[in-house]
């Protein structure tokens, strides 16, 4: 570990916390650690000593300090499969890639994606309404996979290219679970590598057609942006893989928990459905942050209670001070948006689903850290939020969610927060005048 430069005073190392019970209930252990030790403490995670950062103040401190001091820490498997995607880049390459990607994922570009998203969500919601019972999370992943293919790549739902993409992508995603030092001995890993090559070839075909499809996809905007781009910015194909997996998994988790919460809060569901019906008649409202206040508050509160990512990993590339504690170079650092969102000093009654906290100025959705912050904040946040709004709007336009067996009793928190077992759900049409 690096020693501080002579004459520089540093604080103490972060206190140590016991990790007992982390695998079974990680959020409880993180919350207990922050109650005992404050924003920063140490604890083994997956067998490696890790500095944990949480609470709203702690996360603000981390994001303010990370530029040039903390880099995203990914496993060798992630580097193998995703190559030089944005989250694997450092230094100038990372900055160059962000500048190339950002315009296609935010701002005015989003207006062109609304019709493409509704092309997917409208028939999906209709099928859900006609079904007597589906697995909520599996259905959400299928829907957000189709949405991601359409808006990111321009692949029309129901097309032959769409079916090919879905098959390759499932095999690629399965390979991300081939963890450990012996991953190269796993058939799943090599199947994923083949799927990666075939996905790259599919991206090339879609890129060739992007000029004919106008600006209705992210790819159509990124192709000219990456022409002649510096090599350090990474290849477009690798960035597309990262965008696809993030868009599908994050949005599927958010949609699942939004519908779970609304199933248990009928009054909120009815109010959100009223906003959804307005947006169905005028889809442009999805892009106006002053409109659809209840629907947006419901999604914000879902994101607070159910942040898709429990932990995001960093590595200190030079000594850094976090929460008054010294973190030497080479230390692994993890921040938890979930723990930060349960900070009672910022979010009173943190364990209660209360969307109204985001109405009337009690708290702002900008205080949510689910998409990170600072130098490595998620560029896809505006698009992911638009995707979630589009599908929840379409679903609530068909009916209110109902869970015949109640909410999930077993939950996994990694890689994305989701029910462990199938979760049956149906949509129930509101009676007129209700």
Notable characteristics:
alpha+beta, five-stranded mixed β-sheet, 14 helices, 434 residues, three-stranded antiparallel β-sheet
Summarize the structure.
The chain is of the alpha+beta class.
- N to C succession of SSEs: HEEHEHHHEHHHHHHHEEEEHHEEEE
Strand content: 5-15%
Strand order of the largest sheet: 1-2-8-5-3
- H/I helix tally: 14
Uncertain regions spanning at least 5 consecutive residues: 1-9
Radius of gyration: 22 Å
Portion in helices: 40-55%
Globular, elongated, flat, extended or rod-shaped: what is the shape? Answer: globular
Q: What does the main sheet amount to?
A: 5 strands, mixed
Number of strands: 12
Question: How would you portray this structure in words?
Answer:
- The chain is an alpha+beta fold and 434 residues long.
- The protein contains 14 helices and twelve strands.
- It has helices spanning 26-37, 56-65, 76-82, 91-105, 114-130, 136-153, 160-175, 187-210, 218-226, 236-263, 266-281, 293-305, 337-341, 381-398; strands spanning 40-45, 48-53, 70-72, 134-135, 312-316, 320-322, 325-327, 332-335, 400-402, 411-412, 418-419, 424-428.
- Helix 5 (114-130) runs parallel beside helix 14 and helix 10 (236-263) packs parallel to helix 14 (381-398).
- The relative contact order is 0.18.
């Amino acid at each position: 570990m690096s020693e501080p430069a002579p004459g520089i005073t540093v604080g103490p190392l972060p206190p140590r916390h016991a990790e007992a019970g982390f695998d079974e209930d990680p959020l409880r252990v993180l919350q207990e650690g922050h109650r005992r030790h404050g924003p920063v403490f140490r604890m083994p995670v997956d067998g490696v000593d890790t500095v944990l950062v949480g609470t709203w103040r702690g996360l603000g401190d981390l994001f303010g300090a990370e530029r040039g001091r903390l880099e995203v820490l990914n496993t060798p498997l992630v580097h193998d499969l995703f190559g030089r995607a944005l989250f694997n880049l450092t230094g100038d390459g990372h900055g160059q890639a962000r500048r190339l990607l950002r315009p296609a994922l935010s701002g005015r570009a989003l207006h062109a994606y609304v019709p493409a998203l509704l092309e997917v969500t409208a028939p999906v919601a209709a099928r859900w309404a006609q079904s007597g019972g589906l697995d909520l999370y599996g259905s959400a992943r299928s829907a957000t996979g189709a949405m991601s293919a359409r808006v990111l790549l321009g692949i029309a739902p129901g097309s032959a290219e769409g079916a090919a993409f879905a098959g390759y992508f499932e095999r690629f995603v399965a390979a991300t679970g081939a963890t450990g030092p012996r991953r190269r001995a796993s058939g799943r890993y090599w199947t994923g590598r083949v799927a990666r090559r075939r996905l790259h070839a599919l991206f090339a075909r879609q890129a060739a057609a992007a000029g004919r499809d106008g600006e209705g996809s992210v790819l159509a905007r990124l192709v000219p942006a990456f022409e002649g781009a510096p090599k350090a910015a990474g290849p477009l194909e690798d960035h597309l893989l990262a965008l696809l997996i993030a868009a599908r998994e994050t949005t599927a988790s958010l949609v699942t928990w939004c519908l779970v919460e609304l199933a248990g809060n009928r009054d909120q569901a009815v109010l959100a459905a009223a906003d959804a019906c307005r947006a169905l008649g005028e889809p442009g409202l999805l892009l106006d942050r002053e409109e659809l206040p209840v629907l947006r508050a419901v999604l914000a509160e879902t994101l607070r209670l159910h942040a898709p990512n429990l932990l995001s990993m960093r590595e200190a590339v030079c000594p850094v001070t976090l929460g008054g504690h010294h973190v030497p170079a080479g230390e692994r650092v993890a921040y938890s948006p979930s723990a930060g969102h349960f900070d009672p000093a910022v979010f009173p009654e943190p364990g209660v689903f209360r969307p109204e906290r985001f109405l009337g100025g009690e708290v702002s959705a900008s205080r949510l850290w689910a998409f990170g912050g600072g130098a490595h904040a998620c560029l896809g946040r505006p698009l992911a939020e638009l995707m979630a709004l589009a599908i929840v709007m379409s679903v609530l336009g068909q009916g209110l969610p109902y869970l015949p067996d109640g909410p999930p009793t077993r939950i996994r928190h990694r890689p994305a927060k989701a029910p462990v077992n199938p979760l049956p759900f149906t949509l129930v049409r509101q009676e007129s005048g209700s």
